[in-house]
Amino acid sequence: xxxxxxxxxxxxxxxxxxxxxxxxxxxxxxxxxxxxxxxxxxxxxxxxxxxxxxxxxxxxxxxxxxxxxxxxxxxxxxxxxxxxxxxxxxxxxxxxxxxxxxxxxxxxxxxxxxxxxxxxxxxxxxxxxxxxxxxxxxxxxxxxxxxxxxxxxxxxxxxxxxxxxxxxxxxxxxxxxxxxxxxxxxxxxxxxxxxxxxxxxxxxxxxxxxxxxxxxxxxxxxxxxxxxxxxxxxxxxxxxxxxxxxxxxxxxxxxxxxxxxxxxxxxxxxxxxxxxxxxxxxxxxxxxxxxxxxxxxxxxxxxxxxxxxxxxxxxxxxxxxxxxxxxxxxxxxxxxxxxxxxxxxxxxxxxxxxxxxxxxxxxxxxxxxxxxxxxxxxxx
Length: 380
What we know:
Layout: E1 22-23, E2 33-38, E3 45-53, E4 56-62, E5 67-72, E6 77-80, E7 93-103, E8 106-114, E9 118-125, E10 130-136, E11 140-148, E12 151-157, E13 170-175, E14 180-183, E15 191-196, E16 199-205, E17 217-222, E18 227-231, E19 243-252, E20 255-262, E21 275-280, E22 285-291, E23 301-302, E24 308-312, E25 321-326, E26 329-334, E27 341-350, E28 357-365, E29 371-378
Parallel strand pairs: 1-26
Antiparallel strand pairs: 2-29, 3-4, 4-5, 5-6, 7-8, 8-9, 9-10, 11-12, 12-13, 13-14, 15-16, 16-17, 17-18, 19-20, 20-21, 21-22, 23-24, 24-25, 25-26, 27-28, 28-29
């Protein structure tokens, strides 16, 4: 399956504690985050990670001038040689917008190459060779869902116009095995999550408000034949600032979770702490949990047994902590590191069918030394 989340989860237990305190304990007894791989190139930076199961995963990023792709074989990470044209650029840069995989022979990297102009490409790996599709020189890829060689989704945005101060109109493409075709979606899919090819969810500004000064963030759902819009509840401000959705995890059509954090104060340039988890039960939204000590954390990753993983940092400080929510409690632990370095955590992706999670990260020398990209893992 794809990078986006799609796993079963029990219904929300009644009376989940709100504003539960953080503890320094690990997420589970006897388990911790560990470093799985450290990339040797000090200029490498990983920007996306995806898994289809215990035997297949992909991590992708950049050295600025070259695309970097690592594939998990079930026992080790191995470097894949990127397609020609994405290695050793003499000018400009290359960055990864999204990564997804449904099998070792069906991996997709969405890469943006910036030279005289920025152009988005879809790079498909079939296990032995790459196919390269030029998608757009004006639009931006934000995510993907990969279900099979003939069913790949690209979620993105067009440039905004008028009074737009955020994301532009939706730009969504679907690959049928030979052609990328546009799909109309009633909101810009800034964050996306899929249970199956007929159960996809996304969050973003509605089409009606996308180019207005104030955008209204909504949830949208694909049922296999059409998209439908669901309004999100309006939460009371925290620290004088509104709440902003910044992560979604869909586990079924009646088990959808949304993470919201507090918006940046334009006067201070900082965001008050706070995270709220909303739950959709197929009929209505409800606040399931809240922590007013939690700092900014984009994304939401299920843990496979009723809880969620998030990362914690700020807009101006490194994301140094990994946070686990389970059983009404929030637990925080530092990103893994080696002696003489500090660890940072990037994107997280659960390994389908397990309670293990892959993640990207950085190791920064606390003294003299270099910064290296690493791949981290929770669980066996």
